[in-house]
Design a protein that fits this description.
The protein is α+β, with helices and mostly antiparallel strands. The protein folds into two domains: 146 residues, Triger factor/SurA peptide-binding fold (Orthogonal Bundle); 104 residues, Chitinase A, domain 3. It is built from twelve helices and six strands. Strands 4-3-6-5 form a four-stranded antiparallel beta sheet. A two-stranded antiparallel sheet has the order 1-2.
Amino acid sequence: MALFRKPLLGDVRRPGAAIATCIAGLLITTHPSLGQPAPTDAVVAVVNGTEIKESDVRIADEDFGRTLPPIDGPVRRERLITFLTDSILVAKYATQQKVGDPADIARRVTYTRNKALMSQMLQSAAEQAVGEDALRKAYDDLVAKTPREQEVRLRVMFFKFDVGDEAQVKAAEARAQGALERVRKGEDFAAVAGEVSDDPSASTNGGDFGFRTRMEMGKEYAEHAFAMKNGDVSPIIKTRFGWHIVKREDDRFRQPAPFEYVKERLQVSVARKAQMDLIAKLRAEAKIERRDQAQSTDTAPGTAKEAGR
């Protein structure tokens, strides 16, 4: 039989641009769930007088932990603490040996600091944006913007054949035509479907196919189902799966998904929008000069300046 999509109960889309996804991902992938209190910051080890705290372990998990095998629990924790211990020991030894360019290290420290502050600021913006009232408003706005979609309730009879076996196609067609004649003479559609349909479920549900939108049914079904009135029965319909007879029983407009069903997805969407709104505001207020782009335009192969040499 024609395949139907699983009903979709709402569409909560993420913001568009790739940079938006990357920046917003700092919230989703590197921080605890919104609203969760920060764990206690106990000292877990001391290396030559330098403390390693729980917060250090979490930071290492966010960074170095990405390279670890998919392991959890005590083994992962021990590897993270070992990594932190080694980093302290090697860093102090490197300082003693005067290894490393101070300017380069300073740049890396600045980069890491900026990244951490950005992550924390985005986290804060997201947490402030996902209150219950804000989520309810986002839900109401989504419902208001989503077009109302009609759906119809069908009963179906199905008569299977193998494509390429003409004799089987003809035999199935004759069975379908016979069933249709019985319905047209006044027999109950559900009773006939339960008796003759090749759909195993028809014997218990009378061919009830439930409510479906146009996009959730095969093209052949949709052409008939949405052209008929409630109570109408289609002629026999041929698809690559077999012969079908469709009865339209009812119609309605699909209701939006309940708030609780989409709340988690809304939370992600609203949080990311708050982050991107903040970034857009800061960009609009900032003076940003891209000097590298002007330089690359002047010297890129094929430019007018080069061509005139």
